[in-house]
Write a structure and sequence with these properties.
CATH topology of the largest domain: TIM Barrel
Strand order of the largest sheet: 2-3-4-5-6-7-8-9
CATH class of the largest domain: Alpha Beta
Distance between the termini: 38 Å
Bound molecules: 3-methyl-2-oxobutanoic acid, zinc ion
Structural class: alpha/beta
CATH superfamily of the largest domain: Aldolase class I
Length: about 525
């Protein structure tokens, strides 16, 4: 009988660690609800000890979903306490604790003599600490996962000892991360097989894998691990995550579905919800899906050449190995026009996976009417963009109140901006080489930003087709070694640029606030 592979989604934790991606608490809750609808088994909602916002988002997600919610913790009692506190009102939750086990992690991260003077002594100490953490976590919940971080580069004999010891200490899931995306499928498969064969108590835990994509092998490694006995995969929507990202959920799930004869394994994912989830995550994180991305890219089912088009018209299976409907990829639907009412809008948003209460429906409707006035047809993508922007705006500190730009072929562009914060209004003007540069300078002057925020990435794209389409600006500001991303939409790309710039400044402000909070840890310490 086909065996189940547990899908552990870490979009809200590892995915959010993508450079430039940042989600508000409300966005996380909304994504968690959609992940629940998608049918994931475990949602890793964040790393509670790392900041008050992370703590709060894990707490809020915990109260919203049917899936098991997991919180990440280093192998420290204080981290584990933070997960417990965040999820104390949830009946069943998971504590996911981890510790570096490769020699490079041991000698560099645990260099201090208090972890032992020799590699051998440090290795022993790490097993002790890992077991203590697992046993401590176990006093709060029966569901404890342990990850030997950088297992991909960990000596197999030592890895076997670590895994055996943490299972004996109570771990119910042992997750084998290829943290640096270094391993090749054949090697990784052998590692999983060795653990299955040589860890004496392996039957008391589920073997999980967590693969990063630095060499583009995260999905291949995860699938090979399944062939060798892994029964949980950790993955993210659209493959977002630290550096080159994590294994992509949709690719693993569809590989198992399209080629069942290779694995005799299945997941409980409702694949028809894949597109909605992918688009929601993209809109909220501001991370575009590359057009040729497997499964969810815009071109994944597009047939350009005449021969292919001819074949597909005769029979789709000539050039398609899966049906677009199976992942919920439908033609972009025209939603409604300027005369449409709230009920129709609410129904459409619901089918796209959004949860809208009365207050939010009123806010979306307001934006929808403004947009419908400017363009005749409002598409699903427009609605997703509006939702993304509204969620950001609900938590924004700096909000655009007024913008006036003077430009022409023979005049120097001048911008006047007024920015509203909860207690003050800031206003100033500036010139620039172009209208966008003038706006950014005017904002910097209005807010008195003296430190350098370097614009290191700026992209404009049209969300839908047509001359009155919504424009989306995505940008990244670089400041003191950190990156702050912003995204803005408008039918006017200059206004979209200003909104994106303000959003990036809002992210920066949030980060400063977190760092000033004594409970938060330094960014460099984040996994
Ligand atoms: O990549 C990694 O090793 C992780 C662990 C915390 C599982 O994200
Ligand atoms: Zn990771």
């Amino acid at each position: 009988m086909s065996e189940k592979v547990i899908v552990f989604d870490t979009t809200l934790r590892d995915g959010e660690q993508s450079p430039g991606a940042s989600l508000t608490i409300k966005e996380k809750v909304e994504i968690a609800r959609q992940l629940d609808k998608l049918g994931v088994d475990v949602i890793e909602a964040g790393f509670p000890v790392s900041s008050p916002t992370q703590f709060e988002s894990v707490r809020r997600v915990g109260g919203e979903v049917a899936a098991t919610v997991a919180g990440l913790a280093r192998a420290l009692e204080s981290d584990i306490d933070a997960v417990r506190k965040a999820l104390e009102n949830v009946e069943h939750y998971r504590i996911h604790t981890f510790m570096g086990t490769s020699d490079i992690h041991i000698t560099q991260k645990f260099a201090s003599d208090r972890y032992g003077k020799t590699l051998g002594a440090k290795r022993k100490k790490i097993i002790e600490m890992a077991c203590h953490a697992v046993a401590y976590a176990k006093t709060f919940t029966p569901d404890v996962e342990f990850s030997p971080e950088d297992a991909g580069r960990t000596d197999i004999e030592y890895l076997i000892d670590v895994v055996e010891a943490v299972i004996a200490a109570g771990a119910t899931t042992v997750n084998i991360p290829d943290t640096t995306g270094y391993t090749f499928p054949t090697e990784f498969g052998k590692k999983i097989a060795a653990l299955r064969e040589r860890v004496s108590n392996i039957n008391h835990a589920v073997i999980s894998v967590h693969c990063h994509n630095d060499l583009g092998l995260a999905v291949a490694n995860s699938l090979t691990a399944i062939s060798n006995g892994a029964r949980q995969v950790e993955c993210t929507i659209n493959g977002i995550g630290e550096r080159a990202g994590n294994a992509s959920l949709e690719e693993i799930v569809m590989a198992l579905k399209v080629r069942p004869e290779l694995w005799d394994c299945h997941t409980d994912i409702k694949t028809a919800e894949i597109m909605n989830t992918s688009r929601m995550v993209s809109a909220y994180t501001g991370m575009l899906v590359q057009p040729n991305k497997a499964i969810v890219g815009e071109n994944a089912f597009a047939h350009e050449s005449g021969i292919h088009q001819d074949g597909v018209l005769k029979n789709r299976s000539t050039y398609e190995i899966m049906n677009p409907d199976s992942i919920g990829m439908t033609e972009s639907k025209i939603v409604l026009g300027r005369h449409s009412g709230r009920a129709g809008l609410k129904a459409r948003l619901k089918s796209l996976g959004y949860h809208v209460d009365k207050e939010r429906l009123n806010a979306v409707y307001k934006e929808f009417v403004i947009l419908a006035d400017k363009k005749k047809e409002v598409f699903d993508e427009d609605l997703r963009a509006i939702m993304g922007e509204l969620m950001e705006a609900e938590e924004a500190f700096y909000k655009l109140d007024y913008l006036h730009v003077n430009l022409g072929t023979t005049t120097i562009p001048v911008a006047i901006v007024r920015i509203q914060t909860p207690d003050k209004v800031y206003e100033d003007s500036a010139t620039g080489d172009g209208p966008v540069a003038a706006c950014f300078r005017a904002i910097a002057r209005a807010l008195g930003i003296r430190q350098q925020f370097n614009l290191e990435y700026y992209q404009v794209r049209s969300i839908t087709k047509g001359k009155s389409a919504l424009g989306e600006v995505t940008l990244r500001l670089h400041h003191n070694g950190d990156i702050y991303a912003g995204r803005g939409i408008s039918t006017d790309t200059i206004e979209a640029s200003v909104k994106a710039y303000l959003e990036a400044l809002n992210q920066h402000r949030k980060m400063v606030e977190m760092e000033q909070n004594p409970g938060s840890i330094k960014v460099e310490e984040r996994v």
